[in-house]
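Forwarding these from the shared drive since the link keeps breaking.
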Amino acid sequence: QVQLVESGGGLVQTGGSLRLSCAASGRTFGIYRMGWFRQAPGKEREFVARIYWSGGRTTYADSVKGRFTISRASGKNTVYLQMSSLKPEDTAAYFCNLEREGPGPDYWGQGTQVTVSS
């Protein structure tokens, strides 16, 4: 089993910044990629950003490109999401996701709330 614990959410004004963290523990060998998804009330969960553990390649949703940066601390099995120039439409619960190499389930954190006031 893998446990993911997110932190760093909160309330921020439009244009502000927040940094989310996600620490993975348990059976964390063979991480393929980790990422962030978000879900606003009444909407489906959507992809935000991910990072591939081998090589560090990153991908982003178009809506956050240039404003959000995903990074990792490999030795700590931790992934970060630096969010800048936040907008009210970024308001959502943010979930950390981990995929291991090979077949098997995805793992999800419990989520951390980000609220951007206008």
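-- next protein --
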Amino acid sequence: QVQLAESGGGLVQAGGSLRLSCAFTGIGFSTNIMSWYRQSPGKQRDLVAFINAGGGTNYADSVKGRFAISRDIPKNTVYLQMNSLKPEDTAVYYCRAQTPLDWGTARGSWGQGTLVTVSS
């Protein structure tokens, strides 16, 4: 059974940094694309960043140059380092695991989310 657990959210002032973690069981980096999404109140859930099995990464334009996704393979954990945070980064951040066949579909596993609040 796939399980993902996010941590590291909290309240931070604009310009500050946070590092989110997503620890998972039941899957492996070799077969999955690991992603971070975020959802603000009243808005859809949007892709923030992903890292594929080969270690390739991609980012939403809104976070390029400020956020970095990485992974620790022995620890089965993926991270999202968030720097130069802005109030508009305030959202619940979710971790997601998908196989390459799941990509672009509604399939995949989600964590429970962690709230990030950036004050101005």
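The radius of gyration is 13 Å. The chain has no helices and eleven strands.

- D.
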